[in-house]
Prior knowledge:
Blueprint: H1 9-20, H2 50-69, E1 72-73, E2 82-84, E3 90-92, E4 99-100, E5 104-105, E6 108-109
Antiparallel strand pairs: 1-4, 2-3, 5-6
Pfam families: Pkinase (PF00069)
Domain Protein kinase: 1-116
GO molecular function: ATP binding; protein serine/threonine kinase activity; protein tyrosine kinase activity
Amino acid sequence: KIEDEDLDSNDFEHEASLLSSIRHPHIVTFYGNLDTFIYGLKNHKKKISFVQKIRILSNIASGMSYLHDRCIMHRDLKPGNILLSNELTAKITDFGLSKLYTTDSGSMTKTCTVGT
């Protein structure tokens, strides 16, 4: 549970700014601030088959790969931060702790793309 005094508008602005710059089918799309919460993977009540679990994990891996290609570290990936559609398509959410990074180690430099 998040207490009101723990909320900082700068945290929301950071997350909104980051999310508005990325588009991927397995990362939640930012449309604006919402006052309601959607239950995610952690609170999913129906039985999920092995094949469905593999598909969900594939969705998450695809989304994380997309983020890493753009030099974005999520830093808080957990079941509570995965949303599921009615069709069990996974979406990564909660970018409040995320950070942009650069890699420049010796002769290897990773090129990252930020934006759409």
